[in-house]
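Final report, closing paragraph on structural work. Over the funding period we assembled a curated collection of sequence-structure pairs, and we close with a single example.
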Amino acid sequence: MNAERLLTPLYGLGVVGAFLQVAGANWDVSSHILGIVDSFFTPSHLVLYLGILLVLIAGFLGVWFERQTGAKLRPFFTGFRVAFVGSLIQLVAGPLDLWWHSVYGFDPFLFTPTHSMLIVGLALGGVGMGVGTLRLLQRNNNDGTRLLKFLGALILGTLWLDVNFVVLWLANAQGVAYTFGVCAPQVISSRSCAFVGAYEGAIYLPALFLDALGGAAVILLAARTIGRRGALTSVAALVVSVNATANLGFTAYMLLYVGVPGSFYFAAATRTAGAEIASIIPPYLALLIPVLLLDLLARREGRRALVASLVAGPLSVFIDGRFSLFSGLWSPDVTTLLYLLPMIIGGLAARGIKGRLEEALLSGRVPPALGGLPEQA
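Its predicted structure, as stored:
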């Protein structure tokens, strides 16, 4: 079997898996925030673990077929190796998470040993599939097939969601206090753990910066790698759709029509709170309008590119629906002006590292040496 011809199908399988992972993880976190008592076998977990399985299969087969290729093709298989490492970590974490749930029951913390391993694996899977897919796109000098361009948009949206999820993980003060034994679970649940407040205060501005940096980097990469107008809008629309459904939409629906107990993350689990969240969804969807304008600016150089970087940071943070909602950014006051600063700096930093990021991701691009490589149809 020709390993070269399997590149696009295998990366396609892995990209879909990486997307399902982060979509299922967002859905699962929404349930935890609302205090919905779960077990290991829930719909959100099934979506998550289906994604893990797909990335595992793609990574394993990619590593296996790499042995049949020459040195010139090896850079296009790097992504499989990265993703496969992430899958191996998750293979260990999955059974441990099942044991954790069976012993401790409802697990409301994101920053726990098993969840942390799953999240690291999730991030590695997204990065691996991103490296491979974007290198395939660049191999075709931005003239790839429709399937490759679709996969490019899908994996960039997935990477954006992965960045948001990693930031959420690092900012989970309650989970940090629980995992490192700073406070007992009962103290955390009663909101009496002083460490939680101190950690949240210390991590907030860095979290804004990291969220802006990651989102802005994806925005700049989308314009560079997919190579067509509307690419950024497609990527952002994917991110917005996941947030509008798995995060904001699911939360509003459960509060309005089902009723949930709430948790120490979200104590006011009322219909009024649900209506407030539902009212945010239309203006949240309207964030795609400035994305359209940014789509035009991101491909330019000079002052327009600088303006795009200034806007990309804050826009990225607001598009991170869960973070912007629970950070109070949709209810702005004077302090919001202060919070804009790390967002803007994050966008500018993304512009500063753009060249190195592209070099790291696309260093496997060697079109002259691959003139005979078959087109991926």
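Residues 301 and 329 are 30 Å apart (CA to CA). The two ends are 16 Å apart (CA to CA). We thank the funder for supporting this effort.
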